[in-house]
Amino acid sequence: MALKVLVVDDELDLVDTCARLIEGLGHVCLRAFDGPEAIELIDSEQPDLVVTDFNLPHGDGFGILRHANENSPGIPVIMMTGYHTADMAQAASEAGVKAYLRKPFMTNDLMQAVRNALAIPRQ
Questions:
Q1: Which 8-state DSSP code applies to residue 114?
Q2: What are the strands, taking DSSP E only, across the chain?
Q3: Regarding beta strands 28-32 and 59-60, do their DSSP bridges make them parallel or antiparallel, or are they unpaired?
Q4: Of residues 122 and 86, which shows the higher confidence score?
Q5: Element holding 66 (H helix, E strand)
Q6: CB within 8 Å of 13: residues ≥ 6 apart
Q7: Per-residue pLDDT tens over the stretch 29-41
Q8: What is the SS3 assignment for 123?
Q9: CA distances from 81 to 24, 70, 84 (A)
């Protein structure tokens, strides 16, 4: 069964690469390029997983995580960032992020994070 995965990043090439990999796993990929667009898609499409960058135009990954938790309880979120700090990684973990990927990441790391996040039943 194809699940819906929302990929959120302001880098078009990265979104396209992630989408291609996720679609290769047999899932449908939704794309957003800023915070408001991501929130709109979470509300309208109810994705099964969100893969989001931390730094976004008009928002950030934690805002998307909070919105998903409040409006679609149990939806797993994978966070990506090119601006890693230990504090950010800890905050992401404490906030319930299912995986934390440092850019640039290996394609296998993304694919495994997606598989793992989708294998956990939503609550």
A1: H
A2: 4-8, 28-32, 49-53, 55-56, 59-60, 77-81, 99-102
A3: unpaired
A4: 86
A5: helix 61-71
A6: none
A7: 999 999 999 999 9
A8: coil
A9: 23, 23, 6
- Alpha-carbon separation of residue 49 from 63, 77, 85, 87, 98 (angstroms): 15, 6, 24, 24, 10
pLDDT tens digits along 3-20: 999 999 999 999 999 999
Facing residues of 8 across strands? 32, 52
pLDDT at 120: 67
Task: Say how many residues make up the chain.
Answer: 123
Neighbouring-strand partners of residue 49: 5
pLDDT at 2: 85
For the segment 41-61, what is each residue's pLDDT rounded down to a tens digit? Answer: 999 999 999 999 999 999 999
Question: How far apart, in whole angstroms, are the C-alpha atoms of residue 55 and residue 63?
Answer: 10
Nearest of 96, 8, 16, 99 to residue 55 by alpha carbon: 8
> How much is the pLDDT for 14?
97
As to burial, measured by CB atoms within 10 angstroms (0-12 exposed, 13-18 middle, 19+ buried), residue 79 is buried
Cα gap 42→17, rounded to integer Å: 21
